[in-house]
Amino acid sequence: MEFLVPDVPLLKIFSFLDAFSLLQASQVNRCWNRVAENDQLWRNLCLRKWSFCNFSLCLGSQSWKQFFLKQTRLEYRMASVKPEDFIFKEASGNLGILGPMAYLSGHGHPMGGQEKSVVCTVSSKHMLYAWDVQEGTMIWSSPVQQSSIMRLATLPQMHLAFTADLEGTVKVWNCQDEDALATLTMPRACFSLEICLTNDGPFLMVGNSEGDIYTLTVPELRGVSKVSAFKYSVDLLHCSPNKKWIFASGTHQNILPVVFLTESLLKPSEGKSPLSLSIPFSSCCRACWAPRRTSRVTVMHRRGSFKKTGFTTFELMAERTGDRADIQAHQIATFLLPLHMESPIWMGVGDGNMIVFESGPSLFLFTISGHLLQRFEDHQRTIGNLWVDSVHVLTTSMDDSLHLYTWEEEGRYPYLRSCCHLEHLGSDPAPSCYVSKAICDDMSIVCVVSRIRESSILVMYSLHM
User: Fold this and answer.
1) 20 to 30 Å CA-CA from 355: which of 254, 267, 336, 407?
2) The F-box domain covers which part of the protein (predicted)?
C-alpha cells in the first residue's frame, strides 16, 4: 500500500482519524509512520479537542504530537483521581475577601523550566495576588490600588493578567514587576473583560456601564475600536473558541444580546458600524459557546411573569456577497425548565448538544432540546458555584464540599463522569460565610473559602507529579 498511496492523499485520509487510530497507523510501516508524524495532523487533533490550543505559544519546545499526548495523560490522571492523590495547601492570614480568580499558567504550560499552576486572585484590599499552587505560596502581589478591583482576566499563553477597578482603570500585569505594564483610564466603570487571542495577536475587550464595548491592543492598551452596543451596562462578553464571534449582553430585561463578527471590531471601517446581529431573547443571564462547535452559542434567559428559566441554542453563519457580509442566527433548539425546578444561576455546555447547570443541591445534564440525560446528587446542600471548561466541571456547595466531573470524549455515555469528592474544604470545619468558588486545570484545583466576613482562605490541591 505504501507504493499505491502517495503522501498527499494518505495525509488526507489520516486527517479523518482519531488519535488512537493515527498512532496505530503509524506502526504499519516507515512510510505511514512518517506521514502520521505530520505536525498539522496533531495540531488539528489539538484544535478539535481543546479550545485553548490556538497558537504555538502553548507548545514551548514541544511538537503538537508531544503536546497532545502529554495533555491527554494529564487529563486521564485527573479523571481517575482520588482525594488521597492530592497534595493539600492552604493560604490564610490577612488576605482580605478574595474575589475573582483565574489561572495565569497551567494546563501543562511550562513556566521557568518547570510545570507549575499559577493562579491570580483579586482581594478586597485593592490588590492582585499570584500564587504558586504546587507550593501553596504567594509569589507576587500588586501595590495597593486606589479603588476596588472588580474584574479579572488572564492570558496564560503570555503570562499576563488584566484588571479593571471600580473607577474604570484598566491595567495589564506580568505578575513579576511592581508596576503595571500599561494603564488606561476609561470614562465609565468596567463591567466585563474578555481576552481574544487571534491570528493578528491578542486583544482585550472591555464592556462598560454605559453599554460601550472597547477593543484594545495587548499589552499596550491602545484603542482599536469603540461601539455603543446598549443603553445599559455590558455585563457579558464572550469570545467564541475560534475567535470569530463576540457575544455581548447585559442582564437588564430590556436588552437583546448582540453577536459581533470579531474581525469588524479588530479592523473597523471608517463610517461603518461593526457587523453584528441581535439575538431575539431578552433577560439573558448567562451564555456559553460550545467548545467544539465554534459557531454555536447557548443562552440562558428568564421569561414571563413567573421568570421561567429557559435555554435557547443558536448556530451562527456569516455570508459574504462581494464586499458585503451578513450574519444569520438559526435557532436550533429551545426549552423551558418546569416551574417546580429551582432556577439555576450557573450553566455550562459540553460538545454543543448538552447543557449542564445546578438546581438546589443537584447537578443536571440536559440536551439542548430539553431531554434530561443525567442527574447528580453529590452535595447535601445547595450548589453555590459551578465552573465549566471543555474538559472539567466543578461544583462547590454551601457545606464547603467540592465535586469534580469530566466530560466524556466524543459524546460517549456517561456524558459526564463523576470523578472525585472533596469534603470540608480547608482545615477549619466551620461553615463559610460566603459561597465557595473553585477553578481547576489538569494538575490542580483551587478554591476560595470565606469563613469570616473580613478575610478568605485559598485552598489549593495539586496532584502528586
Assistant:
1) 254
2) 1-45
